[in-house]
Amino acid sequence: MASPTRPPVAPPLGSLAPSPSSSPSQFQPNDEQILAYAVVIFGFWNVPGVRHCINPLKLFTIGWHELCHITAAILSGGRILKVTIDPQVGGATIVEGGRPSIILSSGYVGSTLLGALFTLAGWDTLVSKVMSFVLAIGLLMPLVLVRDKLTILLTVFYESLLIGFWFIDHGGALRWYCLFVGVMNILFVIWDVADDRFFHKTNDSDATQFALLYPRIGPHVWASFWIIFQLGVLAAFSVLGIMVFKVPSVGS
Does 140 reside within a domain? Predict the structure, then answer.
């Protein structure tokens, strides 16, 4: 008589690992990657010959910063006299009236908050997909003021890159893109102060403007304050990303 056979037993649920082809890679940013991005951005922001390569991203970053100034000026009763958005000389918003302290603060605060959201997207594919729409629109808006053919072509390239990343690793590649944009925005004060103090760009940094508004406090103190503020927010949102979007461990 044939011996009875036992039906196959399914392995424990904890041992089932997701297939690499069906789920995004579990990329999680770390301090070294964020620092590497900051170094790369600083170089591309300032080094002659290569700084034009990120013009569209610089326009997006500077444009948002100036938009925060404009919004605060209008809400506080001010009147906009002139707005400059240029990847080479920086941005400037000339305002009449309003509340100067609020208008000045809004630029760095706004850049920090937007950068924090993009940085947070570096921990989650769904968040990065949502933020990619913000970036797609933000890259196109400055073209209203741009006539440089190279910048227009580069904008098309960055938009194409954004679309292409949707199809790489199930959209997981968007995390790298969003993290790069996040670091660029959340550390904007560093690029702004460097433009002013070391590269002598035409437009003053907001730190210099704060020193003019409050003469008893030097621009280096204001710069240090805003750098510490932005680094603190970067650290806070990095911890938030680790806590909220922690990759679940696969048990046996």
Answer: yes
The total domain count for the chain is 1
- 20: in domain: no
Range of the domain at 178: 28-242
Whether 250 is covered by a domain: the verdict is no
- As a whole number of angstroms, the distance between CA 57 and CA 179 comes to 13
- 84 DSSP β-pair partners: 92
The torsion angles phi and psi of 15, rounded to 5 degrees, stand at: -90, -5
Check: pTM over 0.85? Answer yes or no. Answer: no
pLDDT tens readout for residues 90-142: 788 899 988 999 999 999 999 999 999 999 999 999 999 999 999 999 999 88
- Residue 85 near residue 142, CB atoms below 8 Å: yes
Cα dist. 131→115, 135, 208 in Å? 11, 6, 32
Q: What is the DSSP letter of 80?
A: E
Spatial neighbors of 87 by CB under 8 A, at least 6 apart, are: 51, 52, 55, 58, 59, 62, 151
Instruction: Tell the residue number behind the tokens 């959209």, with chain if given.
Output: 171
Buried b (16+ CB within 10 A) or exposed e, 206-228: bbbbbbeeeeeeebeebbeebbe
d(Cα 194, Cα 144) in Å, to the nearest integer?
Answer: 27
Does 189 map to a domain?
yes
Q: What is the torsional sign of CA 250, 175, 232, 53?
A: positive
Q: How far apart are CA 181 and CA 194, in angstroms?
A: 18
Dig out the tokens for 85 from the structure: 């958005």
Give per-residue pLDDT as tens, 8-34: 554 544 444 444 433 444 567 777 888
Cα(225)–Cα(6) distance, integer angstroms: 70
